[in-house]
Write a structure and sequence with these properties.
296 residues, 16S rRNA (adenine(1518)-N(6)/adenine(1519)-N(6))-dimethyltransferase activity, Helicase, Ruva Protein, domain 3, seven-stranded mixed β-sheet, 12 helices, elongated, RNA binding, 23S rRNA (adenine(2085)-N(6))-dimethyltransferase activity, Rossmann fold, two-stranded antiparallel sheet, alpha/beta
Length: 296
């Protein structure tokens, strides 16, 4: 039955589906449909989808990536915000009995409860998605903050955001998002995706990012929430020195400045260094030292 029609992602079938249902693209939802089957297969390959994998897909659209995932995965749970697409997905994904589509906004969903109801006894859980550009970072951070043990997050996103996730200290792209993600995950960007393979065509190119949990962290903060807050504060004014950003966070009282100075000295950090030059581990050490000195 699955061989009766060409792949959903093929340009001809995508246009036929759009015409049949009278679909228009919603800019407010960042809808861009991928029409290159080879790219989709490369995404599935990058995710190393195996027959024991349960997959959460965010924003299945008309089912192009969902179909490729269903061919190799154990189960696929697709969360779609656009109600107009539910009858489309019911038809396009009808040949696959291992797919379930839910009308859900992932940022408002009780993901743990959804998994308990729809992916019971999962032994390997992955997220694979082509995320809307405007909401990529919030979704990534939401998934990391759930505490759910994902085996991998494999996400297509704007190339610029992908570069921020994988950026190294001392580079222009390195920022609080880089630190937040790299604290928890190993980041790889296996390949870029040209804007020309989407309809409508976006104004930027994309990239695939593969996030896998770090087996062991080189350092752990006394409190993760305090650590993340400190990192955001240190990058609040990128052109300012670490010292000036720390004073902005904690105040300029003399005893506070003395403790800040002591912390930097003990960590061999110059007050003039900028946040972008600190590694993830150095940020953790700074967090713990400030806590030790009762500043944080």
């Amino acid at each position: 039955m699955t061989d009766k029609f060409p792949d959903i992602a093929s340009p001809l079938r995508t246009k036929a589906i759009m015409n049949t249902y009278g679909l228009t693209f919603k800019k407010s939802l960042g809808q861009n449909f991928l029409t290159d089957v080879n790219v989709l297969k490369k995404i599935v390959s990058a995710a190393k989808i195996a027959e024991n994998d349960d997959v959460i897909e965010i924003g299945p659209g008309i089912g192009a990536l969902t179909e490729q995932l269903a061919k190799g995965a154990h189960r696929v749970l697709a969360l779609e915000l656009d109600k107009r697409l539910l009858p489309v997905l019911a038809e396009t994904l009808a040949p696959y009995d291992n797919v379930k589509v839910l009308h859900q906004d992932v940022l408002k969903a009780d993901l743990e409860n959804l998994l308990a109801e729809n992916l019971k006894n999962s032994t390997s859980l992955k997220v694979v998605a082509n995320l809307p550009y405007y909401i990529t970072s919030p979704i990534i951070l939401y998934l990391l903050n759930t505490g759910i043990k994902f085996d991998a997050l494999v996400v297509m996103m704007q190339k610029e955001v992908a570069e921020r996730l994988s950026a190294l200290p001392g580079t222009k792209a390195y920022g609080s998002l880089s630190v937040r993600v790299q604290y928890q995950m190993k980041v790889k960007t296996p390949f870029a995706v040209s804007r020309t393979v989407f309809i409508p065509q976006p104004n930027v190119d994309s990239a695939i990012v593969v996030l896998t949990p770090l087996r062991a962290k080189s350092a752990v903060p006394f409190d993760e929430a305090a650590f993340f807050k400190l990192v955001r504060g240190c990058f609040a004014h990128r052109r300012k020195s670490l010292w000036n950003n720390l004073k902005s966070i904690f105040g300029k009282e003399e005893h506070t400045k003395e403790s800040l100075s002591e912390a930097l000295s003990e960590l061999n950090l110059s007050p003039q260094i900028r946040a972008e030059n600190l590694s993830v581990t150095e940020f953790v050490f700074l967090t713990n030292k400030l806590h030790e000195l009762k500043v944080l």
